[in-house]
Design goal:
With 78 residues, the chain is α+β, with helices and mostly antiparallel strands. It has four helices and two strands; from the N terminus they run H-E-H-E-H-H. The protein has one domain.
């Protein structure tokens, strides 16, 4: 994060970092540090939400899922 911000100095007023994972709390704090150019963070969950919202490379389908519960007591009686 600090290296990225350092590369921005004199070149950009704002930055954007995208990951398919998650950002640490330290990274989130650094991205919004007062007196430094802002860095927007997009983690994997937000990236997936945006791709879905904008229909970019993804397709949403509703599926029905059957949940089966095993009754162990029944098996003990046989």
């Amino acid at each position: 994060m600090r290296d990225f911000r350092g590369a921005m100095v004199g070149r950009a007023d704002k930055g954007l970092l995208i990951t398919t994972g998650n950002f640490t709390r330290d990274a989130e704090r650094e991205a919004t540090r007062d007196g430094a150019p802002a860095i927007d963070l997009i983690d994997g969950d937000l990236l997936a939400d945006k791709l879905k919202e904008l229909s970019l490379g993804v397709e949403t389908r509703l599926v029905q899922v059957e949940q089966v519960h095993v009754d162990p007591d029944w098996f003990f009686t046989i």
